Amino acid sequence: MDSRAEMGGFRVLEYDASHAVVDLAYRGTSMGQSIDMSIVYHLVWSDGDWKLRSESEAPITSSVISSLSGYVVWNEGK
Fold first, then answer.
1. What is the model's pTM?
2. Amino acid 1: pLDDT
3. Which residues lie below 8 Å from residue 71, measured CB to CB, with a gap of 6+?
């Protein structure tokens, strides 16, 4: 399968000093088709860094989205 993706934007859905929920939007192609995807990360602050919530049944969820509208644009140094 030939799939490629690059991060297109982000949204912080929840945040406090001990946990965060961050939604990253990706633009990519899969089997010749363009696709936009949202991947939501459930994070916890531990030992001085953000880490995936291991006690959560699904620390990462994903879904196909219709566009990147509403996301803060990510330019990766461009």
1. 0.81
2. 57
3. 8, 9, 10, 11, 23, 25
The answer to whether residue 56 scores a pLDDT higher than 90 is: no
Dmax (CA) for the chain in angstroms is: 42
**Residue 69 contacts by C-beta under 8 Å, 6 or more apart in sequence?**
none
Residues 62-69 have a mean pLDDT of 94
Residue with tokens 């459930």: 42
Select from 38, 18, 40, 36 the least CA-distant residue to 27. 36
Q: With 0-12 CB in 10 A as exposed, 13-18 as middle and 19+ as buried, what is 74?
A: middle
* Cβ pair 38, 10 in contact under 8 A: no
Rounded-to-integer distance, Cα 61 and Cα 39, Å = 6
How many CA atoms lie within 13 Å of 44's alpha carbon, on the beta-carbon side?
A: 8
